[in-house]
Amino acid sequence: MAGGRQGNPLSRTNPLRRYVAYRCSACQDMTAYEQVGHDLKTISRHTSRAPKDFRR
Questions:
Q1: How far apart are CA 30 and CA 24, in angstroms?
Q2: How far is CA 26 from CA 13, 15, 33, 42, in A?
Q3: pLDDT in tens, 1-55
Q4: Of 12, 23, 30, 44, which residue is least crowded by CB atoms under 10 Å?
Q5: pLDDT given at position 53
Q6: What is the dihedral of CA 21, 5, 44, 47, to 10 degrees?
Q7: Rounded CA gap, 3 and 34, in Å?
Q8: What is the dihedral of CA 42, 49, 2, 7, to 10 degrees?
Q9: Per residue in 10-44, is it b (16+ CB within 10 Å) or e — as a string?
Q10: How far apart are CA 22 and CA 44, in angstroms?
Q11: How far from chain centre, in Å, is Cα 18?
């Protein structure tokens, strides 16, 4: 899991936005979310290009 934020909480033109990203340990798919209030909105999803039997 990774998280971050962007913007300025005091600005009207560049509001504070919070992001969270998760990687599935089984399939290595990565999904990024933007936190809107208490809900998470999916903003990006990337599937792994590694072979199916590849493990780190």
A1: 7
A2: 40, 35, 19, 20
A3: 788 888 888 888 888 889 999 988 888 889 999 988 889 999 999 887 777 666 6
A4: 12
A5: 66
A6: -30
A7: 10
A8: -60
A9: eeeeeeeeebeeeeeeeebeebbbeeeeeebeeee
A10: 11
A11: 9
Structure tokens at 20: 């969270």
Render the chain in DSSP notation, one character per residue.
-EEEEES-TT-SSS--EEEEEEE-TTT--EEEEEEETTEEEEEEEE---S-TT---
Instruction: Provide the token pair at 9.
Output: 């909480």
Query: In whole angstroms, what is the distance from residue 39 CA to residue 25 CA?
Result: 23
